[in-house]
Amino acid sequence: MSSIRVEVLTARGDPQPWLAMRARLWPDCPAQDHLREAEDMLHDPARTGVAIAFLDGAPVGFIELTLRTDYVTGCDHSPVAFIEGLWTEPDARRQGVARALVAHAVQWARLRKVRELASDTQLDNLLSQATHQALGFTETERVVAYKITL
């Protein structure tokens, strides 16, 4: 049986496994932006959190968390613990990695005395939607956003 371990990443830790997985989740984001965002997250542990999941010792997933004080769709309280990113390597899916990472997020949120954990995904990301539902999330709203470029 495989063993899943979730570790909090700190500013002293090695961010390379996280950055590599982050680049797979958001491939259109330039490497320098990933690095800048990672540095920001690791240097504000009161408001942000990052954890990496290891399966049999290998890094296979991560979760990024923030405390949001602005309005979060479908939530009734503030602040809200928000999952900014959740990733499991394709070969490690359906083995409990995302579930372990979300369990970590619940603990992280409870330690900060927040009452809601929220997340979002794109309308066309059916895999993410199914994963959220399997992990116990309730869909709160569907949105199509518009803009006018000035």
From TrEMBL:
InterPro entries: Acyl_CoA_acyltransferase (IPR016181), Aminoglycoside_N6-AcTrfrase (IPR024170), Bact_Acetyltransf (IPR050832), GNAT_dom (IPR000182). Transmembrane segments: none annotated. Homodimer. It catalyses: kanamycin B + acetyl-CoA = N(6')-acetylkanamycin B + CoA + H(+). Keywords: Acyltransferase, Antibiotic resistance, Transferase. CDD domains: NAT_SF (cd04301). It holds the Pfam family Acetyltransf_1. Residues 4-150 form the N-acetyltransferase domain. One of its GO terms (molecular function) is aminoglycoside 6'-N-acetyltransferase activity. Catalyzes the transfer of an acetyl group from acetyl-CoA to the 6'-amino group of aminoglycoside molecules conferring resistance to antibiotics containing the purpurosamine ring. This is Aminoglycoside N(6')-acetyltransferase type 1. Its EC number is 2.3.1.82. It comes from Piscinibacterium candidicorallinum.
